[in-house]
Amino acid sequence: MMYWIVFALFTTAETITDMLLSWFPFYFELKIAFVIWLLSPYTKGSSVLYRKFVHPTLSNKETEIDEYITQAKDRSYETMMRFGKRGLNIAATAAVTAATKGQGVLSEKLRSFSMQDLTLIQNEDELQLDGTDDTHTAATLPRTRKSLKVMTLV
């Protein structure tokens, strides 16, 4: 872990030094040598830097870091609650809008279906009275009368 913490700090510092010192002779070679020194198990460069600089700084600033983390946690909770409420409001508005628009379309569809069913039933009754329709059996007649009762209720 010491290596990765020191390497992360090196990477952060590297972005600034690359802009400022890239013109310096042997800059990139020195940078490679420094990374090898950090990695090497013989020199233990990362543990030396961690113990001399990073750990004492973190120990001195521990309470400030903890307070900052607590503040960030509280802010993130408040932000998530605010965005969550906003998202739920948008979803509820969209659902109500879709329901109101869909209700009109649904009622039109039901009305058109019911009118077609009634005209079909009237035509069937007229054909049956004339005796010209022999395609309907006795089993279909109760179903059409039942649908007529349902349609009159709607």
UniProtKB/TrEMBL annotation:
Where found, per UniProt? Membrane
State any GO BP term from the record. Answer: endoplasmic reticulum tubular network organization
Q: Which UniProt keywords apply?
A: Membrane, Transmembrane, Transmembrane helix
Q: What is its main location?
A: membrane
Topology relative to the lipid bilayer, per the entry, is: Multi-pass membrane protein
Q: Which stretches are transmembrane?
A: 23-42
Membrane is among the record's keywords: yes
What's the superkingdom here? Eukaryota
Q: Where is the signal peptide?
A: none
Q: Which GO terms describe its molecular function?
A: microtubule binding; taste receptor binding
Q: Does the keyword Transcription regulation apply?
A: no
Q: Can you name a GO cellular component term?
A: endoplasmic reticulum tubular network
PANTHER family membership: HVA22-LIKE PROTEINS, RECEPTOR EXPRESSION-ENHANCING PROTEIN 2
Family that this chain belongs to: Belongs to the DP1 family.
Q: What's the protein name?
A: Receptor expression-enhancing protein
Q: Give the taxonomic lineage as stored in the record.
A: Eukaryota, Metazoa, Chordata, Craniata, Vertebrata
